[in-house]
Amino acid sequence: MNVIFDFGGVVFRWRPAVLLAQCLPAHTATPEALARLVDGFFQNYGGDWGEFDRGTIEAPALAQRIAHRLKLQVHEVAAVIDAIPAELQAIETSVELMRRVKAAGHRLFYLSNMPVPYAAHLETHHAFFEWFDGGVFSSRVQLIKPDPAIFHHALRVFGSTPDEAVFLDDHRVNVETARGLGIRTVHFADAAQAQGELEALGVL
To answer: Name one Pfam family in it (predicted).
Structure first.
């Protein structure tokens, strides 16, 4: 099988509320203020942040846009953008799950919405990239999940048909898109749950 992992929230830690609370404490004094800031900053990974994921704007332009829209200082927004590589720590249980998938004889791939600078950071800081037979970062192909086009592109790059693939992602909309294309899916909550579902699919 061709087993395709999402990255943020699956292989790498992603805690947007924690990140914003740490970087912008003056703007996150209450749970309500924090929730509003998370929504406004990342826009459910559409809007300005979606363009950053797509690779159609760079970090300085993103900072300007978010600052203007949310009435923040540009340096405040830039501090959040710059802090994200440190937030993207590998989740050890997920790394172990990938190792098991690879050891079981399957081909391992990734399909991740990831801006250019973060993609480059991850590639240079994690030896397990050697385990992958290939991967697609959204910013390098200017397509993003859940657009079906990025799934079609990834399958072509991976040399896989939908029925040969299993896709793991923590966002339901991405899972639903993949399932609609005939790809078997795991809606990721944690590595133990994902392993159980992979066992049920006969992958492990």
So the answer is: Hydrolase
Q: In the structure, what pLDDT confidence band is assigned to residue 17 with cuts at 50, 70 and 90?
A: very high
- Please give the average per-residue pLDDT across 44-52, as a whole number: 94
CA 38, CA 106: separation in Å to the nearest integer? 37
Phi (first) and psi of residue 91, to 5 degrees? -90, 115
pLDDT in tens, 182-191: 999 999 999 9
Domain ends where: 24, 52, 87? Answer: 87
What CATH number has the domain bearing residue 118? 3.40.50.1000
**If we measure between CA atoms, which residue out of 113, 109, 115 comes closest to residue 129?**
109
Tell me if 134 sits within 8 A of 160, measured CB to CB.
no
Total structural domains within the chain: 2
In angstroms, rounded to a whole number, what is the distance separating the alpha carbons of residues 74 and 40?
Answer: 15
CA dist 202 and 23 (Å) reads 43
Are residue 127 and residue 43 in the same domain, yes or no?
no
Domain shared by 106 and 40, yes or no: no
Largest CA distance in the chain: 51
Rg (CA), the chain: 17
CB 192 within 8 A of CB 29: no
Q: Structure tokens of 97?
A: 């799950």
Identify the three-state secondary structure at position 55.
Answer: coil
